Amino acid sequence: MKAKSEALRDAATGRKSAESARPKAGRKRLPHAERKAQILKTATEFFADNGLTAQTRRLADECGISQRLLYRFFPTKEDLLDEVYRQEILGVFKPTWFAELQDRSRPAEKRIILFYEDYLKVTLTRKWLRLFMYASLSEARMAPDYISAIVTHLMEVIVREVAEEKAVTLPDDRTALHEMGWTLHGAISHYAIRRHLYKASNILPEQKVIAMHVRTFMVGFESMVQDYADHLD
Amino acid sequence: MKAKSEALRDAATGRKSAESARPKAGRKRLPHAERKAQILKTATEFFADNGLTAQTRRLADECGISQRLLYRFFPTKEDLLDEVYRQEILGVFKPTWFAELQDRSRPAEKRIILFYEDYLKVTLTRKWLRLFMYASLSEARMAPDYISAIVTHLMEVIVREVAEEKAVTLPDDRTALHEMGWTLHGAISHYAIRRHLYKASNILPEQKVIAMHVRTFMVGFESMVQDYADHLD
DNA sequence: TCTATAAGTCGTCAACTGACGACATATGTT
DNA sequence: AACATATGTCGTCAGTTGACGACTTATAGA
């Protein structure tokens, strides 16, 4: 490697100009499970920052261990990536969300706001979002089919709950239901994308944004359903 | 490279198992400008598919030329990437959008729908979106500040136009105005992201989705503004 | 204290990668 | 036909990678 494209390369490899990494002098010899957990934790941040193509040597530096040791825990880099993905991306979804969204002792708007406050907390972090994007972009079968299915289901639940509360009759087309839900979800997700991927500054606080988007969704709900019905070809 | 992580590697490098590429036997010796244009066109697709870390050799294959020839046109890979970004990502924004959005001889809803139909056509394609995402994720200064500024401006125009038509008084906080616009823009952008990045199937046609989201935005506009005012701390 | 074993490192291999000097050839002009 | 020049290729260099065999050493149980 000559010099011209150092910046690009460094970004992709995870190199830091001045070499940070912990003082590898610290304590050593962790038990297997503990070391593995530490590697996974570090790897999550590392790959989220530097992309899935970042190098194992840099990761090892970041962990304060030799590159060889990584291969005592994971047969290949891909296996490591798989485990990071499974734990950090898939692992954060909470089955309780479905139940809570359908708890009709509370008004739907309240339920949806509470859901999104929790949802944003675990999934729409810098770490999660960047990792998810890198995974989505890669051709790997790690692809977000599973997540897509979960979110689609969440959308359907949200739309049905609002319709129930507002006594609105929904169309039979479930795809349309999902798209209606995505109206809200897309807006909120995009807030997170803007914040963590586009590094936007001058951004409103999370709670306010959620409240605003949910309100808009609730108020426009009837006419959205009506509009769909009107546009049937 | 041994064998285990072939799939991952191949995805990142742009290799195709059975080696596609055009029959490089075809006609040769294009004039400078023509060849450069061909390279840029191919490079756009190539990097959109395989990421910014894909290799120059594979790109050369894809172009049907030798790797060396690439360096007759671009001093470094980074320069090539810069030019792709400038042409394909930045180059598609149309200054006329601002004027058209402010043409009050038409109803605001109509203007916004027309705008988004055009906007989706040029920016929210697979090629554009993936490239934009890769660029956003990379630490490179190629970062989307410029785009962010343009879109933010578009948002402000849209919000002001709707407010004018509906005779609604807007808050002074411009950040709030932008966030209101992002309500709509995020929802529509996210539709494209879902479609091209998450490879979602079962998706409603573009026009319908735009109409639905714009309608929801228009109907909920007053209460969104009101809600913002209510939540001032 | 001795030792088995788990925890960890060194050094290296082969393929990959950006970059480029040296060389080859098509094409139009005279 | 001869030539100048732009178009294009070959081969190679040096630094980078994922992967792994061989080796070292801390630590707990006998």
Account of the protein in words:
- The structure is a homodimer of 233-residue chains.
- Chain A is an all-alpha fold.
- Chain A has two domains: 30-88, Homeodomain-like (Arc Repressor Mutant, subunit A, Orthogonal Bundle), CATH 1.10.10; 92-230, no CATH class.
- Chain A has eleven helices and no strands.
- Chain A has helices at residues 6-13, 32-50, 56-63, 67-73, 77-90, 96-101, 108-123, 126-137, 145-166, 174-196, 206-230.
- In chain A, helix 10 (174-196) packs antiparallel against helix 11 (206-230).
- Residues 1-7 and 15-26 of chain A have low confidence and may be disordered.
- The interface between A and B is large, with 65 and 66 residues.
- Chains A, B: Residues 55-74 bind DNA.
- Chains A, B: It comes from Thetidibacter halocola.
- Chains A, B: Residues 1-33 are annotated as: Disordered.
- Chains A, B: Residues 33-92 form the HTH tetR-type domain.
Structure characteristics:
homodimer; 233 residues; Arc Repressor Mutant, subunit A; 11 helices; DNA-binding; DNA-binding (chains A, B); DNA-binding transcription factor activity (chains A, B); transcription cis-regulatory region binding (chains A, B)
Please provide a brief summary of the model.
The structure is a homodimer of 233-residue chains. Chain A folds into two domains: 30-88, Orthogonal Bundle (Arc Repressor Mutant, subunit A); 92-230, no CATH class.
